[in-house]
Amino acid sequence: MKQAVHFGAGNIGRGFIGELLVRSGYEVAFVDVNKELVDLINERRGYDIEIVGDEPQKIHVEHVRAINSAENPEELMQAIEQADIITTAIGPNILKFIAPNLAKGLARRLKRTQAPLNIIACENMVGGSSLLKSYVYEHLTPEERAMCDAWIGFPDAAVDRIVPLQKNEDPLLVKVEPYAEWDADVTQAKGEPPAIEGLTWVENLEAYIERKLFTVNTGHASIAYLAYRKGIKDIYTAMQDKSIVDMARQVWAETGSLLIKKFGFNPETHKQYIETTERRFRNPHLSDEVTRVARGPKRKLGAKDRLVSPASQLLAQGQKPSALATVIGAAFHFDYEGDKEAQEVQQGIQREGLHRAIHNYTEIPENSELFRMVENKTAGF
Hints:
It contains 17 helices and twelve strands. With 381 residues, the protein is an alpha/beta fold. The model has no long low-confidence stretch (mean pLDDT 96). Strand 6 (85-88), helix 4 and strand 7 form a beta-alpha-beta unit. The protein has a six-stranded parallel sheet with strand order 5-2-1-6-7-8, sandwiched between helices. The chain has a three-stranded mixed sheet with strand order 4-3-10. The protein folds into two domains: 2-203, NAD(P)-binding Rossmann-like Domain (Rossmann fold, 3-Layer(aba) Sandwich); 206-380, N-(1-d-carboxylethyl)-l-norvaline Dehydrogenase, domain 2, CATH 1.10.1040.10. NAD(+) binds at residues 4-15. Keywords: NAD, Oxidoreductase.
């Protein structure tokens, strides 16, 4: 069988990327530091996935093993040397921590073979593979970097599947929604792009990244921040609140207008994409905690992220992003004590005042119309 190395044996790794790789003829070696999880995967050599929704389904996944990278670094090196593809689903903030081992394994691999290899970071961010590449290259010599440039691809990707926070009696069971999308940049691939069921290789990845980011992520965050202000605990309950849904639809109308004009998406097709996204959020089996969806407001308020970026681009097109400005204002009121970033933002507001905090976290120019809109909306909550 073809060999895949996947960093991250968590729910997304098992319930999304790992399952597609196995379905496509790969044996998957999950890499993780969770000893209990690693040992259980190695004991069973398989796990179950439950597709939850209107048409429930159970899938049994086999041809898997796991490597504890903390306890068995040599096993990891050998797996990297022999891999036909490497993927990750560990969270953007963890990419830098796997880079040293990945760099060491690639250096060993390149001494043994020049077979092309693609490494795809399947993270909820823009440019995840490129970021991982920059971390890996910090641990390589100039000669090794040159060889990686020739034989190792880091195709950026857009991934989309809701895998909610869950606690199951079976630690390996994963519950996921029916919908799944995985797109990768074919122009960044090395050799023949691997054929993986569920993975679409595209030439204009930016369009697919922004479509997902500004529809699914923007919508999810908008609902969460508005729900938090009302004391609503979960997304499913929030989707029963007419005022929240109406505002989310206004946000989608704004981002949809941007995406259609910028990338030429068919308006009717994009309308269906929005409607599918709304249905996904209404799935009672996938309801997520509002505080989990809203977490990390410092990152979500960033200039290139899901709220400020579409608002800035809309203004540049001559449109007023009123709904987005409302959601950005709500995000500045997310003060959940269990979220480090939320507390950091609140401390910034207390320390420097709202005006300065908005500029610091969003990088919106203080003399711009968008800044005035956001400041007014924030103060109005």
